[in-house]
Amino acid sequence: MTRTALKGSLAAAAGLALVLGGVGSALAQDEPAEDFASGTPSGGPGLDLNGQLDGEDMPVNAYMHQLVVENWPYTVYGVQVEMEPETLDPFEERAWGDVPVENLPLVLGVLANGYNGDYASGVLDAAGAGSAITTDEYGVEEIAYAGTQAAIWHLTDGWEIDAEDPTDEVDDVDEQVLAVMDYLIDNAEPIEEPNPEPHFAIDNAEAVTDGSEVGPFTVSTNYSPDSPTSILPPISLTQPEGATLVNERGDALDRFEDGQAIWVEFDGEETGPVTVTAETATWIAPVGRTFAPVDESGADTEGQRLILASQISDRVATEIEFASPDEATSPESEATLPVAGSTLPTVVGIAAALVAGVVVLVLKRRRAGTAGGDRGENDK
After folding, report:
1. Distance between CA 216 and CA 354 in Å, rounded?
2. Both ends of the chain: CA-CA distance in Å?
3. Closest Cα partner for 229 from 198, 273, 191?
4. pLDDT tens profile 31-86
5. Smallest Cα–Cα separation from 107: which of 291, 293, 301, 287?
């Protein structure tokens, strides 16, 4: 069975556009190929690993790769054991089809349970490897990284670790690296290349005005952990002055969820328009995206390709304006939500029952020059 999501963290995109009513038909979701995340390499030597490739001895170093985007490091792994790690040229994101590597779905399955730059001890615990022995030269992070890297090279290149002498360290370290590698390979289920189309829309087709209250409005989004197809963190909202967004029980809301019915309770019928601020952490590049070293012209150069183990994220926000009840009338037609990969539909003929048509937030891939991190890969 091939999965399409990874721990709620797989997604693409950054940058935000707000489309109201019939505006925005020119904003297509099929972005040009030059839109991608980029960064500079960093890291340092990890544990030395002993093994063979095609029957020949091939000792390697589990170089602890990091990709630095907007001064923030993200954990990555090499996916070509025979290629030297590039430490000078910048890297740019590439689709899997542009990377000459096999078994990337299984590699992403490894990353679902492997070391992602955080909670290294948790990886060892899950693998039954016990507590890592640390010295001045290495610690639990190096062991978790080496076991994860060994599993990846085994899948991408057929590299076989020396089960009798896997590292140049003490026996306990040998056993821990082997335990992590075996655990990750045994539990790797293939996961498709992450490339979802994020969306958020509020449909007003059923909304009516009742005194100072208008609703219900229906939220459609994949920014919601309560959705069976959710791949993104929830969108939080800031309650406006002059009105309160509530659910069917009248409870004030603090976030938008997929399938949610919402009402707006204005302080009075003469209240003017109010503005709701919506905010979320969105991913520029999700776990499993691959990167290639490039020269000044952006052309690929020689060097080991990398796969991202910790999502690159940024925080975005937008404002949604709601009209006052005395300006609202019953809608005359229903609106259509955007279809992934197509141009946003033009919404016409809607006499707004609070929102002018359907409010659609379209999150698009940010170009390389503006990609950045939010200083918190676990930020939800």
Report:
1. 10
2. 28
3. 198
4. 323 346 788 888 888 999 999 999 999 999 999 999 998 788 999 999 999 998 77
5. 287
